[in-house]
Structures are given as C-alpha cells and as structure tokens.
C-alpha cells in the first residue's frame, strides 16, 4: 500500500505546527526546513496555504523558477526549495 499525505487548506491557520510535527516524526528533529509540508504565506491576500511537494520526476516548478531556488539534492534525490534564493513570485504554485 502506498502512503499519501493529504492536507486540508480550509483548516489552515498558518501556525506551522504541521511542519514541526512532520519533521519530528520523519527526521526526529523539530526543523521546519526538513518537513514534507510547507505553509506558504500570501501576505497581500492575508492567507496561508499548506502545500505538499509531489517530488515529481520532471519538476515543472523547478523549470519555471526564475532564480533557480528549486533543485534536487544530489545525495537524497529530494527536491528542495532554497528559501534564501526564493523571491516569492509563486511561479512554482
């Protein structure tokens, strides 16, 4: 049986506790950067959107990123967002 991760954006308050719990249960440390869930804050609209990376084989999000903030980790093969490079343009969403 394949495991899937589902989130309900209507219930999101932007507290980001899901990021901490996810990283703790999978990585054994409370580190939101290692979470499989990311909460994106859209300040202009006053909303928070939880997102789950699908780890696509051919990630279109990485192709459209104007600053190359999304790349594949050479050791794990996981797609990562380098927050220090991200300009928040939301082209990846």
Automatic annotation (TrEMBL):
GO terms assigned for molecular function: 4 iron, 4 sulfur cluster binding; metal ion binding
Pfam families with a match to the protein in the record: Fer4_11
Keywords: 4Fe-4S, Iron, Iron-sulfur, Metal-binding, Repeat
Leader sequence segment: none
Domain 4Fe-4S ferredoxin-type, residue spans: 3-22, 43-75, 77-93
InterPro entries in the record: 4Fe4S_Fe-S-bd, RnfB_subfamily
PANTHER family (UniProt xref): ELECTRON TRANSPORT PROTEIN HYDN-RELATED, OXIDOREDUCTASE
Protein's UniProt name: 4Fe-4S dicluster domain-containing protein
